[in-house]
Automatic annotation (TrEMBL):
InterPro entries: AB_hydrolase_1, AB_hydrolase_fold, Carboxylesterase_BioH. It comes from the Bacteria. This is Alpha/beta hydrolase. Gene3D superfamilies: alpha/beta hydrolase. The lineage of its organism: Bacteria, Pseudomonadati, Pseudomonadota, Alphaproteobacteria, Iodidimonadales.
Length: 286
């Protein structure tokens, strides 16, 4: 028996989009929706979901073009406006009118846009290593590998690729942890060969600059009625310490937590991450 149910929602333009449902029929707390980063998928949140499942219902979405969701035949649709519409379709299907969003990187940007467009929808927003200003150094690094990773020959090769790309951000992982990390980012094709679980065409949006504008402070400042928790990896090259300080200063209900020995982005299984998220949800989702 799995720990979650696999569900599907059909987007407005007809794509089948997958999401995980970690059910909790007994809770009266608000549901939690987890949204992943640019090249990632719902598997990122499995440990966090298991941690939260005794107290909350947790949903984790595969954004279009990632994980088990269908690829978009038109790569121009890989942008935050489309992603927000997809999330709203999921929430409508589940009849959810109030929730907390946990968003890593791109997922946090989607969460910010959701909150700005629908102020009554979000009871809280967790931003995992993302904010209204993105460090150009990190963005350049991401542009360098999205859609450009060499095909893996086997699982050992896939693990080596993931270490090469993410080793600086995730020091100290064991070989078993790296294997699990890789298996969350790849799936096996019909020949048993590992294939990255995202559409390489998402790189077009990245290179065109459609992932995020240089500054989103005006968007962030519309979130004044939404409590915010911002997590920052201590070695992040995407979210600077100065940006986090400004986020706390400019928002009436924003708290911040540094996750040590992590770059972009924390895995959300670290003790600091879990403690901060637990405290935030006790404040917002009960």
């Amino acid at each position: 028996m799995t720990d979650y149910l696999s569900r599907t929602v059909i987007s407005a333009d007809g794509l089948h989009l997958h999401y995980r449902d970690y059910p909790n029929a007994e809770t009266t707390a608000l549901p939690i929706l987890c949204l992943h980063g640019l090249t990632r998928n719902s598997a990122d949140f499995h440990d966090l979901a298991l941690h939260l499942a005794p107290r909350f219902r947790v949903l984790a979405m595969d954004v279009r073009g990632r994980g088990l969701s269908e690829h978009d035949p038109n790569p121009e649709n890989y942008h935050p406006g489309t992603y927000v519409a997809d999330v709203l379709a999921l929430l409508a299907q589940e009849n959810i009118s109030k929730l907390v969003v946990v968003g890593t990187s791109m997922g946090g940007l989607i969460g910010m846009a959701l909150a700005a467009q629908n102020p009554a929808l979000l009871a809280g927003l967790v931003l995992n290593d993302i904010g209204p200003e993105i460090d150009p150094a990190g963005l350049t690094r991401i542009k360098g590998y999205v859609g450009a990773v060499e095909p893996a020959k086997d699982w050992d090769d896939a693990i080596a690729h993931m270490k090469a790309i993410n080793g600086h951000a995730l020091p100290g992982l064991s070989q078993a942890q790296w294997e699990r990390f890789a298996r969350g980012l790849y799936h096996e094709n019909a020949d048993g060969r590992p294939v990255l679980a995202y559409d390489p065409a998402i790189s077009m949006a990245v290179k065109a600059g459609d992932v995020a504008p240089p500054s989103m402070w005006a968007l962030y400042e519309t979130l004044s009625v939404t409590p915010v928790l911002v997590l920052r990896g201590s070695q992040s090259d995407i979210l600077s310490t100065k940006t986090v300080q400004d986020m706390v200063q400019k928002h009436p209900d924003c708290t911040a937590c540094t996750v040590h020995n992590r770059g972009h982005a924390p895995l959300l299984d670290e003790p600091e991450s879990l403690a901060a998220i637990d405290a935030f949800l006790n404040h917002t989702a009960r």
